[in-house]
Amino acid sequence: MKQIISNTYLFLFMLLSACDSTIHQYPEKTGVVDFVVQVNADRTPPPFYKEIVYDRSGNRYETVLEEEASPVYLPNDLLALRCIVEVRDNNQLDAKGNPVIVVRKELNVDNDALPPQAEMHFTLPAEGDYTAQLHKSVAI
To answer: What is the DSSP string of 42-87?
Structure first.
């Protein structure tokens, strides 16, 4: 009988302590979202399989080449990789119907940095539908 009473008290104690109101609360919406973009520029050259030539009249000619591997990328000390990231909101369109650029960042990275070369953090309003576009170029 003592064990039944002690088990009942234990059960009541566990039940009362488990129903804390903070457990069932969810984080409030802050109105902003953290948008993270990892820059992953792959420098592996594609193999060359065909040559495409256009003449002055706009006619296209294709010549199939022998399958051979492209030369390996060798970084030059005089060059750096410039990454330009544009974050666009698909809910807002400009006059041409393209998504509006919300944020644009430029970043120079070492020419021999391995992927991912950089990670960019943006804090944006939560109402948007965002996409990122990477433009990469070689800078001197």
So the answer is: --PPPPEEEEEEE-TT--EEEEEEEEEPPPPP---TT-EEEEEEEE
Count CB atoms within 10 A of the CB of residue 30: 9
Per-residue pLDDT of the chain (140 residues; tens, 9 = 90+): 667 777 787 776 676 665 555 566 666 777 888 889 888 877 776 666 778 889 988 899 988 777 776 667 777 777 778 888 999 999 999 999 999 999 999 988 887 788 888 888 999 998 889 999 888 666 55
The SS3 call for residue 139 is strand
* Residue appearing with tokens 């030369």: 71
**Geometric angle at alpha carbon 64, from 63 and 69, rounded to 5°:** 125
CA distance 25 to 30: 15
Nearest CA to 101 out of 126, 123, 133 is that of 133
What is the Cα–Cα distance from 78 to 140, expressed in whole angstroms?
Answer: 6
Contact 53, 107 (CB under 8 A): no
